[in-house]
Amino acid sequence: MQSLPAQEAAGLSALISHLYDAALDAALWPGTASRIAQALGSTSTVVKLHGDSGQVSLLECTSNLVVPERDQAWADEWHRRDLWVERSLAYGMSRIITDEDLVTPEEQVRSGFYREWLPYLGIHHLVGAVFLTAQGAVGVLGIHRPRDAGAYTDQERRQAAVVLPHLQRALRLGQHCATLAQQHSVAMQALDRFDTGALILDGACRILHVSAMAETLMRACPELVVVRGHLSLHHPMLTDKLSTLVHAAWETAHGRVGKPGSALLVPRSRRMPLVLEVAPLRPASGAFGEERPAVLVFLRDPEAPLDVARLRDLFGLTRTEAAVAVALGRGQSPENIATDMGIGIGTARTHLKRILAKTGTHRQAQLVALLTRSMTTMAS
Fold first, then answer.
1. Which end of the chain is more exposed for a tag (fewer CB within 10 A), N or C?
2. Which residue pairs, CB below 8 angstroms and at least 24 apart, start in 249-255?
3. Treating both helix axes as pointing N-terminal to C-terminal, what angle do 308-315 and 364-375 enclose, rounded to 10 degrees?
């Protein structure tokens, strides 16, 4: 940018800084096209991707290029048949071009692209480039202005040439950050779907994440409390034990000598205790230093009800057989089940035999273990 006038160089420098900021924070991306247009003395900008299958994705454009819904199908077709993109591909990747390089005045007169599409958008002149992206699609940077504004100059070509590599890097960085964000979101959603509660803590029991099921179990269990953002228990001895378990898992996550994981029982009034298990989450190392380790805490409710509908789907049980299976999973005897359901003990045992046959088990204890392990997966 040393060959550019100071004011133009400062404007491009601010634009480049914004590109990288927007790559790290997607909330800053809207409006980027307007910044590019302003920095290059233009009225519109589009950044888009052309895929192998002919699909076009508009990543960002100025508001004057937004097409009403009624014209969207027509606009999509012109984007797929973009003459400037077709000619730029033949011209070469990452080469700054203008409309004058691509289309002769004689071709403009005959081209529907120039006679229909460009007048609709109110543009005529182009400076820009096509380039490869990390996703394998063809990226397009198009900067435009109307006919009466005049063709782009060599100076403006140089300005676009300054911006292009930074836009490419920012897009790659943004796509990488988006992939990491998606992976994080998927992991958090997976934790939320488990019918076992999950919390992520640091070494001091500070809560970093709580799954939906963990929140539900904690609300229903007064023994589990949160004190200034830290997981604790109402009873001091249990709190000390939890702290010891978490610290040991934290040490293990650091690669030091420590117990890799353990558990404790969280008492509940008139109910079976919750099972709390602790495990280390080892950090991943990267070029910018090692990520902080963490501790994963599972909360399991031994009284959690089995899902009748899911049992029927999984093992092909009838509605009554599924109800009997749920009762067995709660630890009830066939005699108690018969009384609760208002059926004879012989009928209850017949249902049990059918359930054993359908699940491929041979004893009641084996059946209960299978039901518990099969259904302790994901919440509906």
1. C
2. 249/278, 249/279, 249/280, 249/295, 249/296, 250/202, 250/203, 250/280, 250/293, 250/294, 250/295, 251/203, 252/280, 253/280, 253/281, 253/282, 253/283, 253/293, 253/294, 253/295, 254/293, 255/282
3. 110
The domain defined by 308-375 carries CATH number 3.90.230.10: no
Please name every residue paired with 106 in a beta bridge, in sequence order, or none if there are none.
none
Assigned superfamily of 6-182: Transcription factor LuxR-like, autoinducer-binding domain (3.30.450.80)
Instruction: Work out the average pLDDT over 318-322.
Output: 89
Q: What residues form DSSP beta bridges with 160?
A: none
d(CA 158, CA 296): 53
CA-wise closest residue to 302 among 269, 324, 330, 327 = 330
139-193 pLDDT tens trace: 999 999 999 999 999 999 999 999 999 999 999 999 888 888 888 888 888 878 7
Residues near 100 by beta carbon (within 8 Å), at least 6 away in sequence: 151
CATH topology of 6-182 equal to that of 194-300?
yes
Domain definitions of the chain by residue range = 6-182, 194-300, 308-375
Between CA 86 and CA 72 the distance in angstroms is 21
The pair of structure tokens assigned to 189 is 């959603």
Q: What is the dotted CATH code of the domain comprising 194-300?
A: 3.30.450.20
At a CB cut-off of 8 Å and minimum separation 6, what does 253 contact?
280, 281, 282, 283, 293, 294, 295
Q: Name the β-bridge partners of 48.
A: 58, 140
For residues 376 and 300, give the distance between their C-alpha atoms in angstroms, rounded to a whole number: 9
- Asked if 178 contacts 204 with a C-beta cutoff of 8 angstroms, the reply is no
Distance CA 284, CA 277 (A): 22
